[in-house]
Write a structure and sequence with these properties.
42% of the residues lie in helices and 16% in strands. It is built from ten helices and eight strands. Strands 3-4-2-1-5-7-8-6 form an eight-stranded mixed sheet, sandwiched between helices. About 3% of the residues have low confidence.
């Protein structure tokens, strides 16, 4: 299978922005094992700004663009250094791709992105994709890595997109406020009612939320790719997903 796994800042870092070492180590171990099993694995990783906040000892996530981009520049170094070190322990080579929304809008740049991705997979590398926060402005940003991961999955004809976050999936109501809220295991169609279940806010360090995940599901399922939202607190959950167990919320691709 060709699988895109997206991990959010809340999965990679502690609330203070510093790296959650134990979890990231486990994530790299599981992804390496799944790659050893013959799967093409692509990682879309958030966390650059969040880690930059921790590395620079800032009290909170910056609000102005220049400070965000500076934090991203610092955090991206630590992020890729960590991935390179951990994946190399399992004899896997990683590749970094930093892209913006305009890369998908320009035919030449989009074709170059696809050609590069296909060649990296042919070389049996593990591509790690993130938005290029150090240069992206509002006019050229994708905006969030949930949407970016869906665009990547569609571009490379992935079989499955998995969003790992700090939530178990999509619920019938906000589980933090409603004790009767139940997990929706399968969504066969993204209706207006499904969209209404999405909130607007993510975590302090991240930029996403359920709203962006539903949008990602719209993109992926409309283009022939199933998508799953699952809790990334234990990366071994990826084994359950590939074993066909019911985990999180699965959005089914549209049948033609």
């Amino acid at each position: 299978m060709r699988i895109v796994v997206k991990v959010g800042t809340s999965t990679l870092a502690h609330p203070n922005g510093l790296l959650n070492i134990r979890r990231v180590e486990e994530l790299c171990k599981v992804l390496s094992d799944l790659k050893n099993a013959g799967n093409d694995m692509i990682l879309v990783s958030s966390g650059a700004i969040g880690m930059g906040v921790g590395k620079l000892h800032l009290n909170s996530r910056p609000r102005d663009v220049a400070s965000k981009q500076a934090a991203a520049a610092v955090g991206q170094c630590e992020l890729m250094y960590t991935y390179d070190k951990l994946f190399s322990e399992y004899n896997h080579t990683v590749a970094q791709l930093l892209i913006t929304g305009s890369d998908f809008e320009s035919k030449d740049r989009y074709d170059n992105f696809i050609n590069t991705m296909n060649k990296l997979l042919e070389f049996s590398t593990l591509p790690i994709v993130n938005e290029n926060d150090t240069v992206a402005t509002e006019e050229i940003k994708v905006g969030d890595n949930d949407t970016l991961s869906a665009m990547v999955a569609v571009s490379i004809h992935a079989d499955l997109l998995i969003l790992l976050s700090d939530i178990d999936g999509l619920f019938t109501a906000d589980p933090h406020k409603d004790r009767d809220a139940t997990l929706i295991s399968v969504v066969s169609e993204i209706t207006d009612d499904i969209k209404k279940l999405a909130g607007d806010k993510g975590t302090t360090l991240g930029t996403g939320g359920m709203k962006t995940k539903i949008h990602a599901a719209e993109i992926s399922t409309a283009n022939g790719c199933d998508m799953i939202i699952a809790n990334g607190s234990d990366p071994k959950i990826l084994y359950d997903i590939l074993d066909g167990k019911s985990v999180g919320t699965r959005f089914l691709k549209k049948r033609v």
